[in-house]
Write a structure and sequence with these properties.
Two copies of one chain form a homodimer. Among the domains of chain A are: 73 residues, Winged helix-like DNA-binding domain superfamily/Winged helix DNA-binding domain (Arc Repressor Mutant, subunit A, Orthogonal Bundle); 74 residues, Ferrous iron transport protein A (FeoA) (SH3 type barrels). In chain A, a hairpin with a 6-residue loop joins β5 and β6. Chain A has a six-stranded antiparallel beta sheet with strand order 3-8-4-5-6-7. A two-stranded antiparallel ribbon of chain A has the order 1-2. In chain A, 43% of the residues lie in helices and 17% in strands. At the A-B interface, α5, α6 and α7 of A face α5, α6 and α7 of B. Bound molecules: manganese (II) ion (MN) (4 copies). The structure holds a DNA duplex.
Chain lengths: 231, 231
DNA sequence: AATTAAATTTAGACAAAGCTAAAAATAGAT
DNA sequence: ATCTATTTTTAGCTTTGTCTAAATTTAATT
């Protein structure tokens, strides 16, 4: 096989399933050369550990993961690069759906799961350009650049903010449909200014002021909202 | 299996391969209850007749084609509806790529082949709306409506136009990359006004006037350009 | 009507991606 | 250090979609 075909193999002949495994391994922390267990991957992907083992071998053969029997997998440099390019596509498509097609933030993930597998570098780049090179997706997750770098941000969980401190709501940790719908219903949106007024010791709930209005928020909610502290 | 799941099966559980077969059968004329042969489908899809036979059985079981052994297949009403919805998506995505992302008309087909399989009714409808409900794709092919109707148009091949008659170039019959690039190079584009000045008996070439400029065009070219006659 | 060429189907195999059940390895608890 | 409980892998089977080679049917020609 020629050198060019090795290139083609890696970049164009990745199956949808292989791409999904790489993405999951990355999300479970396998990008930092941490070993991710078969079971953890299986649980996350709602599949069986035996299936994960098979795929681990396949990805290892392709040089995308380091796999040690009974120990787990971690991404190689190539694997991490591939995972990041899929995550980049996923998040760009989510922005596109919200910004250009008026999808709500709880509708985009499912469609992006499909769109992230479309193979066309030009398409991604043009979508990126059309959206004016966004840095974050609709859930506040950073969009990797073409060369796989993240925009870092000084954010912390609302539940970890000190009393009286003020910040801007910049992301959600849990981006499940029910949580997102709950936030909509309570007018909690990214970009809103939040001040912690008071903490209730009993149940760790917070009294906050958001865009002028005062409200009470459970610990459950507060520990799933990212806030950027004002300078 | 519940009634609802039967619905789901037909509309959401179509595989990419099944969709491609339906589309091909439609393009070969199987939408007009004409029987399409195994060989014709195999040739068009660059696959083997035996593979087509297998798929014919599967699609027949699903009620999407009528299949008679040794005779060929034709689309059922359901099959035609499904084929048209995929063709609709394909052509809408092509318009999107050209209109919104500055793709050229020879770059869009390959990407649309992938995008046409994305499953989200809302996505198609929103793209349609974003594009202002286009009637034709970048190659002049009509875009089926949501309920599977085509916009008819009184068009004929340039090669069949009578001398002196005037029309507007509205479509290409051959939409291969080389032909489209040739047209670009010679400034022949959809929307241009064309008058047939003269026909050469020897090789059936035409002398035409296009947007003011005079040029000579081979029969090969003229028989792959659709023209709408002025009223 | 019989023969032959071409088209089509069948049979059997393979790769990808999944599953279940059984075997093997690891890690935790005595 | 040994024994379990848990995790992980292996072996073997399934489905989808493809292929090749062999068998069968149809269609064309004498
Ligand atoms: Mn998502
Ligand atoms: Mn997201
Ligand atoms: Mn096309
Ligand atoms: Mn087209």
């Amino acid at each position: 096989m020629s050198n060019k075909n090795v290139f083609l193999k890696k970049y164009f002949l990745m199956t949808r399933s292989e791409e999904n495994y790489l993405k999951t391994i990355f999300h479970l922390g396998g990008g930092d050369s941490k070993s991710i267990t078969t079971n953890a991957i299986a649980e996350q992907m709602e599949t069986k550990p035996s299936s994960v083992t098979d795929m681990a071998k396949k990805l290892s053969d392709k040089g995308l993961v380091d796999y040690v029997r009974y120990q787990g997998v971690s991404l190689t440099t190539e694997g991490k690069k591939t995972a990041l390019s899929i995550i980049r596509k996923h998040r760009l498509w989510e922005v596109f759906l919200v910004e250009k097609l008026d999808f709500s933030w709880d509708e985009v993930h499912e469609v992006a799961e499909q769109l992230e597998h479309i193979k066309s570098e030009k398409l991604v780049d043009k979508i990126d350009e059309l959206l004016n090179f966004p840095k974050y997706d609709p859930h506040g997750d950073p969009i990797p650049t073409k060369d796989g770098k993240f925009q870092e941000r000084d954010e912390k969980l609302l539940s970890e903010m000190s009393i009286k401190s003020i910040g801007i709501c910049v992301g959600v940790k849990d981006s499940s449909v029910p949580f997102l719908k709950f936030l909509d219903k309570n007018n909690i949106a990214l970009g809103n200014t939040i001040q912690v007024l008071d903490k209730e010791d009993f149940d760790n709930s917070l009294r906050i002021q958001m865009d002028g209005k005062e409200m009470r928020i459970s610990h459950q909610i507060a520990s799933n909202l990212y806030v950027k502290k004002n300078d």
